[in-house]
Amino acid sequence: MKVLGISGSPTKNSNTDTLIKTILEATGAETEFFKLSDIKVVPCIACMKCVSTNECILNDDFKWLSKKVMEADAIVVGSSTFYGAASAFTKAFIERLYSKRHVKLLTGGKIAATVAVGVAAEKMVAEWLGNALRAGGMEIVGSMTAKGTPCCFVCGPGESCHYTVWNAYSKELTGMDFGVGEAYKEYLEILPDNKPYAHGSARFLKSYRSVKDEPSVMAEAERIGKLIKERIKSRN
């Protein structure tokens, strides 16, 4: 029984990494974890040369990583969110899996789970990831999201920057309430004189949000790992 974990978060020791590794551990299986930012997997170039062979011709680390995917009984794919979407690392990996779909649907029947970590758009990213893996014929047995650390917390000028993520996702700019203020009320105080994209004014109450401090989030990761374990066993 083999389970493969793939993280598309470029952040060292990220929340995405933590949740994927927690899922892997809970499976009790033989596992491997790879961080896409540590290897080289470039985007698909739509050359269609994989149609007859189901092998991508691009010469990078996807050559060996795709073999790991094919050997695995289950795969856990996770991404942080950037501009309301999956990371470019994650997107490139998903695109390259297309080479395994042609005619034979070689990834068909594999078990999969997804993880998405973000500030406001993580649910959309989780949905996209699930749909992409289902397109490859995989069975999604679990999907989870979590709130992460906004990059504006650690970049330096976040308390006074006009263009912070909470301003970008503000009701004033988007016409929608993404709930950022409520979700981060223990971490962030948006001050009364803050005006999105005109005058940034906030105070950081905590500088980092870790999923390890959120028992319900960690428990969900463990639950998904156990679901993967049971699903693999039921097939065998």
In short:
The chain contains eight helices and eight strands, in the order E-H-E-H-E-E-H-E-H-E-H-H-H-E-E-H. With 236 residues, the protein is of the alpha/beta class. The termini are close together.
**How would you spell out the order of helices and strands?**
EHEHEEHEHEHHHEEH
Gross morphology: globular
Oligomer: single chain
Distance between the termini: 10 Å
CATH topology of the largest domain: Rossmann fold
pLDDT averaged over residues: 96
User: Which CATH first-tier class of the largest domain would you pick?
Assistant: Alpha Beta
| The CATH H-level homologous superfamily of the largest domain | Flavodoxin domain
CATH architecture of the largest domain: 3-Layer(aba) Sandwich
Query: How many β-strand runs?
Result: 8
Structural class: alpha/beta
- The whole-angstrom Rg is 19 Å
Largest sheet: 6 strands, mixed
Please report which band the strand proportion falls in: under 5%, 5-15%, 15-25%, 25-35%, 35-45% or over 45%. 15-25%
Residue share in helix: 25-40%
What is the overall number of helices?
8
Structural domain tally: 2
